[in-house]
Input
Amino acid sequence: MPNRHAPALLAFALCIITLAVNLQAPLYITYADFSGRGAAATAVAFSGYVLGVLPVLLALGGLADRVGRRPLILAALGLSMLATLLMLRTPSLETLGVARLFLGLGTGLASATATAYMGELMAGSDSSRAANWVTASTSLGFGLGAALTSLFLLAGPSLTPGSFHLQLLLAFIAIVLVWRLPDPRPAQRTAMLRLPCYPAGSLAYGFAILLAWACVGLVIALLPGILRQHGLSAWSGFSTFCVISCGLLFQPMARRLPSAQATLLGLAILPCSYALLAWGADSGALHAVLFGAVAASSACYGFIYLGGLAAVNQLAGSEKTRASAGFFLLAYMGFSLPVIFTGLLSDALGARVALIAFGAVLLTGCLIVAAMLHLSARKQRVEAAC
Output
C-alpha cells in the first residue's frame, strides 16, 4: 500500500472510532425513560466514557512507544464495535454506562497516539498539519454518529437503529485497512507508566478545551431532555452534530491564525453562543438552538480544539504523546464532571436554573483562561526581547 494513502486511512479510522462515541446520543432520553431515571442518572451513564479515558491518559502514556502506534488504533476500533454490540443486545441506561466505558477506553488509546502517529505517517510534515488532520477527522466523527442515528430514527422509533449496524460494518472495514498501515516508529522498551505532562505555557490551552468540551457534553447529555419538553426530541441528534462537526467549517480560518489568537477567539465566542443555545432550548426556539450549536462548534471544535492542540504539540518538543495526553485529560474532565453537576442541579432545581448556573461558570472560566493566555503571551514577548 503506498505510504501517501496512509494519513487518509488513519483519518478514516479515527473518524469511525469517534463516530461510535455519540451514536446512541439521540436515544439517551429513551433509555432514561425505560429505566425510570432523570437527568443526573443520564449524565452519570454518559460520563462512564471518562472512566475509560482516564486510566489510559493517566497510567498508560508509554503504551504506544512500547507496542507501537497501530495496535492501539486497532484496539480502539475493536472496543468501538464491542460497545455497539452491547447496545444492540441489551439497550438500557445501565448498558449505556458500560458501553461508554469501553468507548472511553478506545478513544483514550486513540487520542494518546493519534497526533504522533499521523505525524510519523506524514514523514516530515510539521506537527500542526498532523494536528489538523486529527482534529478534522475526530470532529467529523464525534458529530456524525448522533446525526446518523437521528436520520435512521426518522423512519420510526427503535432502540437498535440501522446506524448501529452501519458502525459495525465501517469499523470492520477500518480494521482491515489499518492492519496494513506501516508503523514507522519501532517498538521500544520504555516504561509503561508515563504520566501526562504540561509543557510550559500549555496549561491554559488545556483549561480552554475543558470549558469548550463541558459545553459540548451538556448539549449531548442533557439537551435532549430539555428539547423534549417542547416536542423537539427528533432534533437532538442534529443539535449534537451541529455542536461538534460544524466546527470543521471554521478550522481553515483557525489554521491561518496563531494558536493563541485562535484560542482567544474561541473563548470569546463560546459564552455568547452558549447563551443563544440555552435560551433557545429553554424557550423551544429550534432556530436559536441550531444557530447557537453551530456558533459553539466554531469555538469548541474549530478555534479552541485546533488552536490548542497545535499549540501543545509545538510546545511539547519530543514529548508530544505525553503532552497530547495531558491536553485530552483536561478535555475529558470537562466533558464529564460539569455535566454530572449540571444534571444534579437540573433534577433538584429545574432545567432553567441549571442552564443559567452553567452559563455563569462558563463565562467566568472563559475570562480567567483568556487572562492566562494574555499573561503567557506577554511573558514570552518579554523573554524574547531580553
Notes: Residues 351-385 form the longest helix (35 residues). The chain has one domain: 3-183+192-385.
